[in-house]
Amino acid sequence: MSSLVEKSFIVMVLTIMLVCSSVLATKNPIQESKPCKRLVLYYHDTLFNGTDVANATSAAVANATGLDKEHKFGMLVVFNDPMTKDHHLLSPPVAKAQGFYFYDMKDAYTAWFAYTLVFNSSEHKGTLNIMGADLMNDETRDLSVVGGTGDFFMARGICTFRTDTFQGDFYFRLKMDIKLYECY
Predict the structure, then answer these.
(1) Partners of 82 in the beta sheet?
(2) Whole-Å CA distances, 61 to 78, 125, 134, 174
(3) What start and end residues bound the annotated signal peptide (predicted)?
(4) Does domain 31-182 correspond to CATH entry 3.90.1150.10?
(5) In the chain, pLDDT over 90 holds for what percent of residues?
(6) What is the value of pTM for the model shown?
(7) What is the pLDDT of residues 63-99, one digit of tens each?
(8) What does DSSP assign to residue 75?
(9) For position 181, what pLDDT does the model report?
């Protein structure tokens, strides 16, 4: 009996040592308090209102369901929006945000985003992929950075939204604070 207990103890100790060594061997341990890269950008969305073809950067491709009047439940918007380093719409874009959002709740003003930031400048080349819920009534909202290419190869992190301005149904600007915790 004692031989069986000794063998079990040895197996348990070896298992613990194996798990600890694999955790310690992680290439880039995540340190939440200190991102490896940080970007602050402004997202400008100009929704097509039926007349402004030249300036529109997004369009509703599926109308709201009509189940509610206030929250646009079911409306799907596809966008190709400019990203700038400051809040001015006419500043030179440093990237394009390409993707979609849809309004996903009948009783609250929320949307779900999935998009790619496409960089092609002297400062950055590559993409960042971002997705998640935008709970618009909250002051700040966190979406996940789920990957990237080029300068952002395999990046992981958090993109914090803050509504910078909202002008009716056809223009809004978000301040995006992007913190990457996995950079290769």
Answers:
(1) 96
(2) 7, 30, 19, 21
(3) 1-25
(4) no
(5) 57
(6) 0.78
(7) 877 777 777 888 899 999 999 999 999 999 999 999 9
(8) -
(9) 95
| Greatest extent of the chain over all pairs of C-alpha atoms, in Å | 85
Question: DSSP letter string over 98-112?
Answer: EEEEEE--SSS-EEE
pLDDT at 20 over 80: no
Q: Which residue has the tokens 């966190």?
A: 142
Question: CA triplet 74, 75, 80: central angle to 5 degrees?
Answer: 140
User: Domain limits of the chain?
Assistant: 31-182
Q: How far apart are CA 16 and CA 145, in angstroms?
A: 32
Rounded distance, CA 152 to CA 116, Å? 12
pLDDT at 13 over 50: no
Helix (H, G, I), strand (E, B) or coil at 54: coil
